[in-house]
């Protein structure tokens, strides 16, 4: 069949996404065996190679495991790689973002205020320039939610680097996908000028405390940034469920 032999560049990604969404949404429950190759090739109209490559990709994300003579089993959620950008995205698209935002915030509260405090004690002139540059980019007129989130991420990465603690920088790198998703779904751009102005003012408070070497103020300001982001994400979710475009 012609449709079974064509392999557009995005075909493998489509199969990965649809199966991933089926698993995250609960259509295929924890510990359930997925349909076999024949059923999946019929469903997606692709070759067995595409199906097997997709299963390997899902296994790498920690959500399935394949065994000979058993098949491919959905693993328990506690073992999934929640820092994987695809897994996070599938959760959001499945309507799990309200709880997910709170869980991401708990992770952030655990290390970002301390990173800000350390940055205030240890920052260099170059660190200050990087933090302020990211803040300036967040303030660009007419910025959209996607680019605001990118510059927001750069702001927080610059602070982690300024902490001069390689573990802080490494943690930020590990959770970068989670931070990116968090910043996107809590974007003030989606709520208009007052929310954007508030967010910029809060980030400026963090930046100024770091530049002026006020560690306690930097940590407190970072906690407020995170908390306001949580509240805003809940509003964004109520008004536009799912992942912002």
Automatic annotation (TrEMBL):
Signal peptide annotation: none
Keywords for this protein: DNA-binding, Transcription, Transcription regulation
One Pfam match: FCD
Example GO molecular function: DNA-binding transcription factor activity
Domain HTH gntR-type span(s) in chain numbering: 9-77
Source organism superkingdom: Bacteria
Family matches, as PANTHER family: GNTR FAMILY REGULATORY PROTEIN, TRANSCRIPTIONAL REGULATOR, GNTR FAMILY
UniProt name for this protein: DNA-binding transcriptional regulator, FadR family
Lineage, broadest ranks: Bacteria, Pseudomonadati, Pseudomonadota, Alphaproteobacteria, Hyphomicrobiales
């Amino acid at each position: 069949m012609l449709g079974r032999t064509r392999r557009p560049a995005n075909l493998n990604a489509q199969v990965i996404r649809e199966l991933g969404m089926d698993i995250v949404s609960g259509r295929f429950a924890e510990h359930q065996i997925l349909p076999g190759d024949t059923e999946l090739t019929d469903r997606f109209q692709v070759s067995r190679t595409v199906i097997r490559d997709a299963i390997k990709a899902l296994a790498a994300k920690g959500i399935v495991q394949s065994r000979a003579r058993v098949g491919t089993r959905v693993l328990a959620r506690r073992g999934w790689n929640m820092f994987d950008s695809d897994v996070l995205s599938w959760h959001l698209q499945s309507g799990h973002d309200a709880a997910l935002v709170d869980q991401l915030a708990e992770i952030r509260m655990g290390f970002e205020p301390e990173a800000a405090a350390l940055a205030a004690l240890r920052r260099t002139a170059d660190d200050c320039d990087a933090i302020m540059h990211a803040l300036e980019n967040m303030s660009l007129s007419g910025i959209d939610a996607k680019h605001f989130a990118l510059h927001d991420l750069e702001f927080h990465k610059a602070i982690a680097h300024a902490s001069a603690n390689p573990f802080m920088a490494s943690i930020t790198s590990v959770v970068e996908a989670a931070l990116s998703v968090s910043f996107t779904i809590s974007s003030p751009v989606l709520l208009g000028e007052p929310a954007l102005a508030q967010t910029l003012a809060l980030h400026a408070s963090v930046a100024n405390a770091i530049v002026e070497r006020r560690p306690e103020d930097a940590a407190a300001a970072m906690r407020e940034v995170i908390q306001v982001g949580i509240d805003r994400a809940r509003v964004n979710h109520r008004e536009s469920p799912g992942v912002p475009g």
